[in-house]
């Protein structure tokens, strides 16, 4: 399972070390050498588990599908994003983490607004 591309549909065969990786970043993490570029790439479909080769010099729109199961493997990559949030239990069971919108918030006093009592105290001064 690739941690760089969450929806990877195929694995690629690295021509340099003849091993399968989900993406080029996975290859870079596990190997000390750079990924060798080639015009004939080996793919392994994750849906039907069959390997196939594609010639990148003659790549067409119809080549975006697995030749065995027609799985569309050239799709926009979903990459993980860092999310800052509060983890909690299911809100349907324990709703203590949720803000109750029905409760009216207190008026926050501004520095420029005075209560009538504060204003009278300042005037008497």
UniProtKB/TrEMBL annotation:
Organism domain of life: Eukaryota
Entries under Pfam families matching the protein: zf-CHY
Domain CHY-type positions: 1-71
InterPro entries per record: Mito_Tim_assembly_helper, Znf_CHY, Znf_CHY_sf
Keywords from the UniProt entry: Metal-binding, Zinc, Zinc-finger
PANTHER family per record: CHY-TYPE DOMAIN-CONTAINING PROTEIN (PTHR28082:SF2), ZINC FINGER PROTEIN (PTHR28082)
Name of this chain's protein: CHY-type domain-containing protein
Species per Swiss-Prot/TrEMBL record: Lentinula lateritia
Taxonomy of the source species: Eukaryota, Fungi, Dikarya, Basidiomycota, Agaricomycotina
